[in-house]
Amino acid sequence: MSPIDLFRRTGGPARAASHTLRPATEAGHSFTQQGRAQDRDDSVSVVIPFFNSADTIERALCSVAAQTVAVDEVIIVDDDSKKEQRKSLATAAGRDHPMPVRVVRLEPNQGPAAARNAGWDAARSTWIAFLDSDDSWHPRRLELQLGALSAETLMISSQSLVLGADEHPPGSTALIEPPIRRLDKRYHLFHNPHTTSSVLVRRDVPARFTDGRFYAEDYEAWIRIAALGEVLTLQVPLAYFHKDPYGTRGLSSRIWRMILGEHRTFVLLRQDGVISVPQFLIAELIMAARIGRRLALRALRP
């Protein structure tokens, strides 16, 4: 059995019973594949940033190949990986995939934001689907997201599930008309509901990730896009994170860097006039409250 066939047979949300979801028409949207405009261009370019991740890139590519809606191209952006990693990437990209796969190389290493931007700029399709090289998708991810779009949609995401680094998604789960939620800019100021590997965004949206940032750079981009127009999310997990659990110290350090990244996000958005002074202050106060709560919980530990 090929890796693609295996992924098709095992694709589906993990650690959950079957999802049989009711129709939703929130924000004036009805979910129907047949309801898509016949003349709408739903071409999709997949952008995968790659940095020394040869062990997982094949799984990511197999999950793209297993989609029920064919993609037009896959762009893998090699962010100056080691020589042996580049060779492994060339082998994986050169396999007999059902979609074109091309590799763009950055030199020197510039970080995930720059890598995603390079793929975004190189893409030729109407829609950009992001996928990290160590993540994977449910086989119906693109089908369900494209079916939920309206003429005004700039971006759509879904929920995600965290799996072990070597854990396969279990048997397929029924995904019938998942609820659609519209999220405005104000909502994004207090929540980050999007994981990058679940995001589908219009290529021509005048927004990008801020180069050189390593934490909350995606959150900043989502707020900028939400300030421009319609952002939707599907209330069903269609992306999978394959991660090893962090140790207590490693997780704590990562969380603090993410909090500082959020602060930097709000500063940049205020400087560019994307958010008002009251919105900036409220967002900072809520972030400070979260920090205070975390410090209090730490002080109470034995």
Automatic annotation (TrEMBL):
Question: Glycosyltransferase 2-like domain spans which residues?
Answer: 45-156
Superkingdom of the source species: Bacteria
Q: Where do the segments described as Disordered lie?
A: 1-38
A Pfam family of this chain: Glycos_transf_2
State the SUPFAM superfamilies in the record.
Nucleotide-diphospho-sugar transferases
Q: Return the InterPro entries for the record.
A: Glyco_trans_2-like, Glycosyltransf_2, Nucleotide-diphossugar_trans
Which protein, by its recorded name, is this?
Glycosyltransferase family 2 protein
The lineage, from the top, is:
Bacteria, Bacillati, Actinomycetota, Actinomycetes, Micrococcales
